[in-house]
Design goal:
Blueprint (H helix, E strand, L loop, with lengths): L1 H11 L6 H11 L8 E9 L10 E8 L2 H6 L3 E5 L15
Antiparallel strand pairs: 1-2, 2-3
């Protein structure tokens, strides 16, 4: 019970880190490119030929999540050293 109390106290003081409160801002301040409204249709790991894991790359194919925009634009191909995938959901209220 003591650890739950400490967790609760930390949350009340803003100690919890989350994407929506501070992690995205910190990533952006350090040079990360953040894309919203996008759906990844393909993610392929491309290992470094010399075995240097720090030089591994990822290839993504990205489309607009909005169907109207998706019909007007070709998929975008992106290459990155690091990729963070985050998904959200809509809260549905039951009546």
């Amino acid at each position: 019970m003591h650890s739950l109390r400490r967790l609760h106290d930390g949350l009340q003081r803003g100690a919890k880190k989350s994407l929506d409160t501070n992690l995205l801002l910190q990533a952006w301040q350090r040079g990360a490119e953040i894309c919203t409204g996008a759906s990844v249709t393909s993610l392929v790991h491309r290992p470094d030929p010399d075995g240097d894991r720090e030089s591994d790359r990822w290839e993504l194919v990205v489309v607009h999540t909005n169907e109207a925009l998706r019909r007007r634009n070709d998929p975008l191909r992106v290459t990155a050293g690091k990729v963070i995938l985050a998904a959200g959901t809509w809260a549905v209220r039951k009546s």
